[in-house]
Amino acid sequence: MTDTYRIFGSELSPYSVKVRSWFRYKRLPHEWIVRGPANEAEFAKYAKLPLIPLVVAPDGTALQDSTPIIEALEARHPDPSIHPSDPTAAFASALLEEYGDEWVNKPMFHYRWTYEADQVSAATRIARSRFAAEGPALKKAAAAVRERMVPRLGFVGSGPETRGAIEASFARLLDHLNAHLASRPFLFGARPAFGDFGLFAQVYEASTDPTPGALIRFRAPRVLAWCERMLAPSADGSFETWKSLAPTLEPLIADEVAEVFLPWSSANARAIEGGGERFEVLLRGEPFAQVPQKYHARSLAALRQRYAAADPAARGLAERTGCHSWLAG
Ligand SMILES: N[C@@H](CCC(=O)N[C@@H](CS)C(=O)NCC(=O)O)C(=O)O
CATH homologous superfamily of domain 5-76? Predict the structure, then answer.
């Protein structure tokens, strides 16, 4: 038996890139396998869900879903830790990890599949990596990918009526991050934390697409540098304490997590409970309507459990930023 983990993923999948960065940070032997027809039988043998990333451990056990993957493997390989020892910072890191996975995926997906240049760029890259096609075969495969992905915009709530809310949220995120990263290489100091992995992966994917890529380069160059650093991160010192992080991280949590992500996620969970087919919520005064999604409701429940079990210091942060009422359920 080798000691090498195998990651079935794709360069265009934020959750795959997130898990790969974690492996690189831990310096754990791993093989990156681009999912495609050549390895479909093997993928199907291990995967319970038709989703990437899929991690196959050296002992043959299979793991899916990037947050539980990282949590399970972090327990097995705790050094260097991705969890700040300051309890407030540790909770903020978990909150930003969720915000990245569950909300920032929306602007990423929205930009990628809304505008023509982005659709063509992403569909071509997916087709080339997945089917190793070139020339007319590449064009045909890319057209099929585009046709399959564009109708999925509705699942993330992207459409002409929500474009304003989604793009404004992404711009606010970039501005906050760009200010915060002026005085540190990673979100929580001189080494990457759980929150960096979740958040960077979505922003990194956006940076590879023409429209949001130009926006990031123009508006938030430090965010681009952070994304590049996060592709293969290494520690360059310690985590900071919450005192030095708070001035630029609390405004991000207040504006984006408390006023956008948590109200949306709570409305989604209520709609799932009530069995509605569509829900509408006002996010910073902008209407946002979507088909409810079960997965997000489950992950909000997990976040609320994490909050209930968190160090009391986390409560102060949640109260100051306006997250408390949403997290206390
Ligand atoms: N919550 C999952 C989400 C995984 C996911 O949505 N993966 C996408 C790619 S980013 C996927 O495999 N989609 C199926 C497809 O594109 O065929 C995680 O964190 O791993």
Answer: Glutaredoxin (3.40.30.10)
